[in-house]
Design a protein that fits this description.
InterPro entries: Fosfomycin_Res_Enzymes, Glyas_Bleomycin-R_OHBP_Dase, Glyas_Fos-R_dOase_dom, VOC_core. Residues 6-119, 137-249 form the VOC domain. There is one protein chain. The protein folds into 2 domains: 4-118, Roll (2,3-Dihydroxybiphenyl 1,2-Dioxygenase, domain 1); 135-286, 2,3-Dihydroxybiphenyl 1,2-Dioxygenase, domain 1, CATH 3.10.180.10. It has 8 helices and 17 strands. The protein has helices at residues 17-28, 70-82, 92-98, 148-157, 202-214, 255-260, 270-273, 283-286, and strands at residues 4-14, 31-35, 39-43, 51-55, 61-67, 88-89, 102-107, 113-118, 135-145, 162-167, 170-174, 182-186, 191-199, 219-225, 232-237, 243-248, 264-266. The protein has a 9-stranded mixed beta sheet with strand order 14-15-16-13-9-12-11-10-17, with helices on one face. An 8-stranded mixed beta sheet has the order 2-3-4-1-5-8-7-6. The radius of gyration is 18 Å and the shape is globular. It binds ligand LTTKRYJ7 and fe (ii) ion. Fe (ii) ion binds at residues 140, 142, 183, 194, 196, 245. Fe (ii) ion (FE2) binds next to strand 9 and strand 13.
C-alpha cells in the first residue's frame, strides 16, 4: 500500500488562463512564481508551487501527492500495476513541468487523475503573498466522486489514506495528522471541487469575507464552522466555477489521538456541514432531494 507523504499540487486546465492567474493573484492572494505561454505556477506557502493553471480546459484537473522517497514511488507503481491499475510513468518533460524528479500517473475509480511524485522542488525563497489574505499553507482538496464507497476503498486500500469522518457516505480522508487532505464530494462527474488554503485565524476569514463581497466575488458557503474538522471556513467561486476555500483551525490529531480515533458518521444535513447555520450556494447541494441540506433549517 502506498504511503502518501503530503498533498503537493493541483493542476487546473483552463481556457481562461489569464483570468485564472489574475484571480489567484488579486483575489486569492497567491504569489506568482513562474509564468510561460502555456502555464502559470502559484503558491500560498514556501513550496515551489501549489497550483499550476495549464492552458486548455481539456487538460482537466490533476492532484499531485509527494512520496517520501523514489523507492516508495517505484513500489507504489509496482503494487498498483499488480492490482491491474493502469499506471503511466511521467516523461522527463512532464517531470520538468511539475518541478519533480520522478512521477507516476493513474486514475481513481471515478476517473480523477492522480499523480504521485518524488523529490519535488523545494524553494529557497519564502512565500510572498500578493494580498494580505493570511494564507499559511495549501492544505486539502475537495475531490468529486461519482461513487463515494468505491473511491473510499481505493484511497484507503491502495493509497493508505484513513477515514477521519463521513458525511453520509462521503469520506474525509487523512494521510497524516491533519484531519483531511482529501474531502470526497458526491458529484455526477470527476474533478477537483475545491482547493483549500489554510489561513492564520478567524479574523482572516472575516476580513476576506468583506473583501470578496466588495470585489463582487460570489460566495459559495460561509463564513461557517465545519462540524467535522472544527475548521472555520469560507468558500468562494473563481473562474471556470472552481471553488476556493479559506479555513483555519483544522483538527490535527496527535499520534495517540490518531491511534484511538474512530471515524464519526455525520448525517447529510445542514449542521453536519456548518455548525453556525450558513447555507451553501453550491449546485450539488441545491440539486439535493427536497428536504435535505439546501432546505432544512
Ligand atoms: C463540504 C465539504 C466536502 C467539506 C466538509 C467538511 C470539511 C471540514 O471538515 O473541514 C471540509 O473542509 C469540506 O470541504
Ligand atoms: Fe474543504
Amino acid at each position: 500500500m502506498a504511503d502518501l507523504h503530503d498533498i503537493r499540487y493541483v493542476r487546473v486546465g483552463t481556457d481562461r488562463l489569464d483570468e485564472s492567474v489574475e484571480f489567484a493573484i488579486r483575489i486569492l492572494g497567491l504569489e506568482l512564481v513562474h509564468r510561460d505561454s502555456d502555464a502559470a505556477y502559484l503558491r500560498g506557502d514556501d513550496r515551489d508551487h501549489n497550483i499550476c493553471y495549464v492552458k486548455g480546459a481539456a487538460e482537466g484537473h490533476v492532484v499531485g501527492f509527494e512520496m517520501a522517497t523514489g523507492e516508495q514511488l517505484d513500489q507504489a507503481a509496482a503494487e498498483m500495476e499488480r492490482a491491474g491499475i493502469a499506471v503511466r510513468r511521467g516523461s522527463a518533460e512532464e517531470c520538468e513541468r511539475r518541478r519533480v524528479r520522478d512521477m507516476i500517473r493513474f486514475a481513481d475509480p471515478s476517473g480523477n487523475a492522480i499523480e504521485l511524485v518524488s523529490r519535488p522542488a523545494a524553494s529557497g525563497r519564502r512565500y510572498f503573498p500578493s494580498r494580505a489574505a493570511g494564507i499559511t499553507s495549501f492544505s486539502h482538496i475537495g475531490l468529486r466522486t461519482t461513487d463515494a464507497r468505491t473511491d473510499e476503498a481505493f484511497w484507503t486500500g491502495r493509497l493508505g489514506a484513513k477515514v477521519s469522518d463521513w458525511i453520509e457516505d462521503a469520506a474525509l480522508l487523512r494521510i497524516d495528522g491533519v484531519h483531511h487532505k482529501v474531502a470526497l464530494f458526491n458529484s455526477a462527474y470527476a474533478g477537483v471541487h475545491h482547493i483549500n488554503f489554510q489561513v492564520g485565524e478567524v479574523d482572516d476569514i472575516m476580513r476576506s469575507w468583506y473583501f470578496l463581497q466588495e470585489q463582487g466575488v460570489q460566495i459559495a458557503f460561509g463564513p461557517g464552522r465545519h462540524a467535522t474538522s472544527g475548521a472555520r471556513f469560507l468558500y468562494f467561486y473563481g473562474p471556470d466555477g472552481m471553488i476556493y476555500e479559506y479555513s483555519c483551525g483544522v483538527r490535527v490529531f496527535s499520534e495517540e489521538e490518531e491511534r484511538v480515533h474512530v471515524p464519526r458518521q455525520f448525517r447529510r444535513e445542514p449542521t453536519s456541514y456548518c455548525t453556525w447555520g450558513s447555507k451553501p450556494d453550491i449546485a450539488e447541494f441545491r440539486s439535493e432531494a427536497e428536504g435535505s441540506i439546501a432546505h432544512a433549517g
